[in-house]
Write a sequence for this structure.
């Protein structure tokens, strides 16, 4: 699969502080690329560099296979729709009026703008003043403004920030629908569960460095979920010298791979410890993330 965004050693330094450090990003075409990281890890700064809003201190950016340079930016950047930080839009104007400004500024066909409004399901509210919109509606208007130019790539900085679960679900469904229309989506968040549910590829930033990039499944493969051993006789199991913590229905054991799990079950069975069930704990992305960053952020 081709890459829509590639960066080589992308770095941004503010005075003596390195906000983004030597990033090699790879955003595959057609993906929802979940760009994850705690506050201040450098997500917005990275996105601003991709959009030509902030100049990199060092490194290169390729968009749609072509280097982003002062000469190429006017050709490449119109293919990107973006929403960075707070949703845009004038509160004293209606949704439709806000979109008309975008339409006039960029010289867009009215039908294209109308389609963006329908895609984000704001058509019924287009004549309301934006200051009376809910936060979710403002976010969707921001996405419509980004979509109006019919982009190949959508770059969204924390579009679910501050939304309730229903609003988050709406944005998630919308982004999935957009990739169905052939748009690549790069979306940042510190809401780990949120990214987990929609991203096909994940990049994790910590202190400006990329500590993981790859398919969601690969991320989980790096972290071994705890094992729960259900037994009415946990003391008998602990007597065998295994390292475990007590759970209401038995014991919890960390860090065992499949072979070590098989060994443990064999030892318990040989010692006639009754085992009712052995299962892996479901891990959220948050667990995996804490695991990675807690270990110093190195994979
Ligand atoms: N214009 C600037 N001047 C100086 N430092 C900056 C500037 N912009 C960002 N920074 C610093 O760079 C680091 C990364 O900030 P950035 O906003 O990119 O992080 P983030 O991951 O997007 O976090 P958040 O979700 O809180 O916005 C922070 O330490 C921030 O204070």
């Amino acid at each position: 699969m081709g890459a829509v965004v590639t960066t080589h050693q992308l770095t941004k330094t503010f005075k003596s502080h390195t906000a983004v450090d030597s990033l090699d990003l790879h955003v595959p075409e057609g993906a929802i690329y979940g760009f994850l990281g705690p506050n201040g890890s450098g997500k917005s700064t990275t996105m601003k560099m991709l959009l030509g809003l902030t100049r990199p201190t060092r490194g290169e950016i390729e968009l749609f296979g072509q280097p982003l340079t002062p000469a190429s930016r006017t050709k490449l950047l119109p293919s990107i729709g973006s929403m960075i930080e707070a949703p845009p839009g004038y509160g004293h104007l209606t949704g439709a009026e806000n979109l008309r400004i975008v339409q006039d500024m960029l010289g867009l066909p009215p039908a294209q703008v109308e389609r963006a409004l329908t895609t984000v399901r704001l058509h019924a509210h287009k004549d309301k003043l934006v200051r009376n919109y809910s936060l979710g509606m403002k976010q969707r208007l921001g996405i419509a403004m980004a979509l109006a130019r019919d982009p190949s790539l959508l770059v969204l900085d924390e579009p679910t920030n501050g939304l309730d679960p229903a609003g988050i679900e709406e944005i998630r469904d919308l982004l999935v629908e957009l990739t169905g229309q052939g748009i690549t989506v790069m979306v940042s968040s510190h809401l780990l569960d949120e990214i987990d549910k929609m991203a096909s590829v994940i990049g994790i930033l910590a202190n400006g460095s990329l500590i993981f990039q790859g398919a969601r499944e690969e991320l989980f493969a790096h972290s071994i979920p705890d094992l729960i051993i259900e037994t009415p006789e946990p003391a008998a199991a602990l007597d065998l010298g295994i390292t475990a913590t007590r759970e209401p229905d038995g014991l919890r054991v960390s860090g065992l791979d499949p072979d070590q799990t098989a060994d443990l079950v064999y030892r318990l069975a040989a010692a006639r410890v009754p085992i009712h069930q052995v299962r892996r704990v479901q891990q959220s992305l948050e667990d995996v993330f804490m695991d990675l960053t807690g270990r110093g952020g190195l994979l």
Summary: The longest helix spans residues 165-180. The chain has two domains: 3-220, 227-282. The first strand starts at residue 3 and ends at 14. Residues 227-282 form one domain.
